[in-house]
Amino acid sequence: MLDPRLNYLVIVARTGSFTTAAQEAGVTQSAVTRSIAALEREVGFPIFYRTPRGVIPTEKGGDFITRAARLLEDARELLRSGAGNKDPYSGVLRIGICPASLEWGLVEPLASLLRRHRGIRYDISSGGFETIVQHLRMGAIDVAVGYNAAFSEWSDLRREPMGSLDVALFVRRGHPLLGVSGPTLRDLARYDFVSPSDSRPYGEIIRNIFQKQGIDWHERVHRADFFPIVRSIVETSDAVGVVARSHAASPQFAERYQLLAGLDLFPTAPLCCAVRVRWEPKAATRALIGTLTRAFPLAQ
After folding, report:
1. Which of 12, 98, 168, 203 could, after both became Cys, cross-link 198 (CB 3.0–4.6 A)?
2. At 182, phi and psi to the nearest 5?
């Protein structure tokens, strides 16, 4: 059996309170408090910050809680499978997306997969590459979807190639750069940027725009993965953003924004699904990878 303290831990994290967690678990508050304190001594770091209003996970504690929740869910799935569940696809499928700006491309593939396998329950998280790859390596998610270059340095991860994403720079309609004939990198460096991720393939290219002009890029670059926020920053300022060309082709995009012509800074970026080498992907993970490779086919 798994350590019962892990169950207390996850409930405390969800409720933000030792008292509420104890009521839900059917034990005394002192039992929960002692259990968490013992866990913290055992792992060697604080899992929660204690405040007058409740508890908040520490940075390391948040990672530990995520792994504990995964273990508990896996144990429940294992018991369900042993109880006669005949559907190998049923259960939670944990997907990490990085950067979050890729979410738009997964809407239809995820819906398609769910239509074929009704027993799948999605647990989808998105964020920066560093967070998602850490969660994948420690087993908090089953599969990560992102740019192939960002996962290439990790020997413990296996990459399943998908098609490529072609991106371009965009600005609001009426932007000063649209009146510049043949804009250069020097022209670009006059304006702030919204970078969809600080990791490869975008971060280094965008930083170099400013560094080559002797400008501190920290003062000029927004980092935002959620595309509605990117759009909002671009629309309400002179910032330059990055968008997938396929998305920019929509009439709704063209009403407010325009691509910068003649500035192809970014190479076509291959996508991939990444899984851990030492763990055999479960049926739902394999089905997701197949669905995504069909949705984003490799160039012939």
Report:
1. 203
2. 65, 60
Cβ neighbours for 145, distance < 8 A, ≥ 6 positions apart: 95, 96, 97, 98, 102, 106, 271, 272, 273, 274, 292
Q: Which residues pair with 247 in a beta bridge?
A: none
**DSSP annotation string for 217-253:** GGGTEEE--SHHHHHHHHHTSS-BEEEEHHHHTSHHH
CA–CA distances in Å: residue 58 to residues 47, 64, 300? 6, 10, 47
Q: Which of 210, 199, 187, 209 is nearest to 260 (CA)?
A: 187
Tell me: cis bond preceding 201? Omega within 30 of 0 counts: yes
Residue 186's contacts (CB-CB under 8 Å, 6 or more residues apart) are 213
State the Cα–Cα distance between residues 20 and 2, nearest whole angstrom: 22
Cα torsion through 132, 138, 140, 143, rounded to 10: 60
- Mean pLDDT value across residues 142-160: 90
pLDDT digits (tens, 9 = 90+) for 21-38: 999 899 999 999 999 999
* Residue 240 near residue 260 (C-beta atoms within 8 A): yes
* Domains assigned to the chain: 4-65 (1.10.10.10), 87-164+270-295 (3.40.190.10), 167-267 (3.40.190.10)
Length of the chain: 300
Q: What percent of the chain has a predicted confidence (pLDDT) above 70?
A: 94
pLDDT value, residue 84: 59
